[in-house]
Specification:
Chain lengths: ~425, ~425
């Protein structure tokens, strides 16, 4: 199986054997799993020529043109074509399988059904050594120690190229492979991208994935991503995020930008977020979410279940169901299990637990974390001074506080800031 | 944190009303990389070199300092612009534009230059605490272990602040200038280009340029800009930041040379040890001069010893696509962690070679930087003038000309030094 570095710079000869050019590059249209090589770019004494790959035959040590070079008509590269050496070699790509950004050391090509195809990206040490002509030597040296040089090839259908072919034409490459990953993985990848690439990704992902991904990105970077997106798009993504996460993010933005975005958000989402923004960032109110289920105290168990059917809440909201009085004051808590086991006509006030552990909206977040950890809770209700239920802090909001320092991600970024 | 709404397409009315506020906030938001890097340049190597230059030649090389500072501004501006435009670090760009072989050359140059800087930082640590009577066999291993533990297990930010406080001791230099009341016409005559006839003049000239425009600074600067995520619309502020940083770095060096040139040069005191360098502060601090100098040098060196190995490891791993990051362990990021650890070990070990003299060691590191600088500069200029890389932010004609001027200066000093040392042997 040849590598691009093997055949690049090979002599190109005419049928009669005279050398007319060197192979400078190959080009593909990046479609399908393993795109076929369609063009060859030749370096001739009078400049570059683009010819169809089908005009060439691979022979040992060189490439032979099927006709004389001056009788072959120049082909034209379409805009979406990728030149393997210029646009992919040495560039960063996404390994969608390992969910990380890697650098291409070499490209693997293979003849499939008489068609030369791009089959993989070599991102390992071997590729690097091959480029400087030291692969064989290194292999012997490592062989002496009874070891083998590891291969680091990613099959092409798992590779997502990142860079646009040319700085001047900022074409957006559709990133379909990226969208299939878990948002947490996309977030890891996005953190390694440049500003432009990052923006492109958030413009292309569907709103829901974009929101999930943004939630997973490091807090410092969230704000800068939102600043780069256009307002409408940013507001749509914020609408889709959990209100507490949206509020945290908005807190990091300059006031003016923040107001603009809140204005563009949907009414109810915006109201939730604005309420959350009134609490200090480090308090229970600042980290809580306003998504929770509050059941009116006069319901029966059956009525409560019917209500849940209507609401169709997300799974994580159903761990604790809160019971509130007419003024929205927290009276008790019920588990889904209690509700299901009780007779349908039983009032929920009879099955609820009146001893609810709760925190004030102004409590420091460390205290909230300590309570959640101590009592093994999944969520903790947050109330105001008049016991009115405002929201809940879920365990995922405090996990970061509980983890030791070193667990949080650090990078050069921490030095630069 | 990313900045303000300078770039936002607000309504024209609103824009006019808030322009002033935004302009100030915008500047504060992008200020940083340039100014911080300007200060970071004054590590062990800088202070020692400037002190030696002042002590050996008085004010005679001030003109070169001016030229070098302008050069620093010009080149840093290119790096900052490259970072903003491409969102990539310098080593990324070198790899993508020039391929594996050239990258290996550039990275070898960087590792030699930065490796010698790490040695210089440890020499600075050893020299500073020796003033306080602590032998280097104690201080150096402790410092190496401390730096390693700090970076691997703790937050760099807190310690950064502590060290910055120590470095503030160097404010003693500008303050001294006011106390000393140097003979300004004589000082200013140093801005007339001339090379003193002493055979060591060329060596110190090279060290002066090498420590002012350190290759490391250029990589660090661009990485900081990228990490900060400065956007294209804030480029104007970023430019001010860069020039301000270069000006501050130059001004600071100017103060050191003026103080040492006024105190040490007439007295014929050569900077052969940290104690000797500290004597420049005697008019200001009396017998506390040693302590003051030791504080500043120790803080600056420790800061350098933390940042230098880290930024080197990042640059190299980025270029070759190896895993990097301090939150990763040896198994996840083997090259990054080994490189970082080895650089620290190497620096500490060389300083501990019995009988090695510290000040010449620090100066040699600056010479190595000066010799290697032109190679890195050529890479930078090739990139900054490449329209494929830079798009519309490509170098203008004046900037390019100035840039090649810096290359010519650094190159001729570097070649001159190599020739001179070749014929000397």
């Amino acid at each position: 199986m040849p590598y691009l570095s093997d055949i690049q710079h090979r002599r190109v000869i005419e049928p009669n054997g005279t050398e007319v050019a060197k192979l400078a590059d190959l080009a593909v249209v990046p479609q399908g799993q393993f795109p076929a090589v369609q063009w060859a770019i030749l370096a001739t004494p009078s400049g570059e020529r683009v010819v169809r790959w089908s005009e060439m035959a691979q022979e040992i040590g060189h490439l032979r043109l099927r006709g004389r070079l001056d009788t072959i008509t120049d082909a034209k590269l379409p805009q979406e074509a990728l030149r393997l050496s210029r646009d992919l070699m040495d560039k960063q790509v996404v390994d969608t399988h390992g969910a990380k950004v890697v650098r291409v050391n070499d490209l693997q090509l293979s003849e499939v059904d008489g068609q030369l195809r791009l089959v993989g990206a070599d991102v390992g040490l071997r590729g690097l050594l091959r480029r400087v002509g030291a692969e064989g030597l290194a292999e012997r040296v490592v062989g002496l120690a009874g070891q083998k040089l590891p291969r680091g090839i990613i099959p092409w259908h798992l590779v997502e190229p990142l860079s646009a072919p040319d700085a001047n034409v900022r074409v957006t490459v559709p990133r379909t492979k990226l969208a299939l990953l878990h948002p947490a993985d996309i977030a890891d990848i996005v953190e390694e991208m440049s500003v432009d690439e990052r923006r492109a990704v958030f413009e292309q992902l569907d709103i829901e994935t974009a929101a999930d991904t943004l939630s997973e990105v490091e807090p410092e970077m969230q704000a800068s991503i939102v600043s780069d997106l256009d307002e409408e798009r940013a507001a749509d993504i914020l609408d889709e995020m959990a209100p507490d996460e949206a509020a945290d993010l908005l807190q990091d933005l300059p006031e003016e930008r923040r107001d603009e975005l809140v204005d563009l958000m949907q009414k109810d989402e915006a109201a939730d977020v604005e309420e959350l923004l009134t609490y200090p960032e480090d308090s229970a109110g600042g980290i809580m979410t306003t998504d929770f289920i509050a059941l009116p105290a006069q319901l029966t168990a059956g009525g409560a279940i019917d209500r849940l059917r209507e609401l169709q809440p997300d799974a994580e909201l159903t761990y604790y169901l809160y019971v509130v009085d007419g003024q929205g004051r927290l009276d008790g808590v019920i588990s889904l299990r209690d509700l299901v086991v009780a007779k349908p006509e039983t009032p929920i006030t009879e099955v609820m637990d009146r001893n609810v552990l709760k925190v004030d909206a102004t409590s420091p977040k460390e205290e909230v974390a300590a309570l959640i950890a101590k009592y093994n809770l999944l969520a903790l209700p947050v109330v105001d001074a008049r016991r009115k239920l405002l929201g809940t802090v879920t365990i995922d909001d405090v996990v970061d506080i509980m983890l030791p320092r070193g667990w949080r991600k650090r990078s050069l970024r921490s030095i630069a800031r | 944190m990313r900045g303000d709404g300078i770039a936002r397409p607000l309504g024209a009315l609103r824009r006019r009303a808030t322009r002033r506020r935004i302009a100030i906030a915008g500047f504060l938001a992008v200020v940083g990389p340039g100014v911080i890097t300007g200060f970071a340049g004054n590590e062990a190597g800088g202070v020692t070199t400037y002190s030696s230059v002042g002590a050996h030649f008085g004010f005679a090389l001030l003109w070169l300092l001016l030229v070098a500072s302008i050069g620093l501004g010009v080149i840093q501006e290119m790096c900052s612009r490259m970072g903003i435009t491409t969102g990539q670090g310098l080593s990324d760009l070198i790899r993508e534009r020039f391929g594996v072989r050239w990258t290996i050359l550039a990275m070898l140059v960087l590792i030699i230059a930065n490796g010698s800087n790490v040695v210089a930082e440890f020499a600075g640590i050893a020299a500073s605490v020796e003033i306080l009577g602590v032998p280097r066999i104690v201080s150096v291993p402790l410092a190496a272990l401390g730096v390693w533990t700090l970076v691997v297990f703790f937050s760099y930010r807190i310690v950064e602040r502590v060290l910055f406080v120590l470095v503030l001791a160097f404010i003693a230099y500008p303050v001294s200038v006011f106390i000393l009341k140097p003979d300004w016409p004589v000082v200013l005559s140093g801005f007339i280009p001339s090379l003193p006839s002493s055979p060591s003049a060329l060596v110190f000239a090279l060290a002066l340029v090498g420590t002012t425009i350190t290759p490391y600074l250029l990589f660090y600067m661009q990485a900081s800009v990228v990490d900060k995520g400065t956007d294209r619309q804030s480029a104007a502020y970023a430019r001010i930041d860069v020039f301000l940083g270069a000006a501050l770095a130059g001004l600071f060096a100017f103060f050191i040379i003026v103080v040492t040139g006024t105190v040490l040069y007439p007295a014929g005191i050569q900077v052969t040890s940290a104690e000797a360098a500290a004597k420049a502060l005697v008019p200001l601090a009396g017998e506390r001069a040693g302590l003051l100098f030791a504080m500043g040098l120790c803080g600056a060196s420790l800061l350098g010893a933390v940042v230098m190995p880290l930024s080197t490891s990042y640059a190299i791993c980025e270029a070759f696509g190896w895993e990097s990051g301090i939150s990763k362990n040896f198994r996840e990021a083997p090259v990054f962690m080994s490189l970082f650890t080895l650089l620290l070990l190497l620096g500490a070990t060389i300083v501990l070679i019995p009988g090695i003299s510290l000040i010449p060691l620090i100066i040699s590191a600056q010479i190595a930087n000066g010799v290697l600088l032109p190679i890195i500069l050529v890479f930078i200029l090739r990139l900054a003038t490449d329209r494929r890389v830079m798009g519309d932010a490509v170098n203008g004609r004046v900037t390019t000309a100035l840039g090649w001027g810096v290359v010519a200066l650094a190159g001729s000093l570097s070649l001159g030094y190599l020739f001179a040392s070749f014929f000397a042997t």
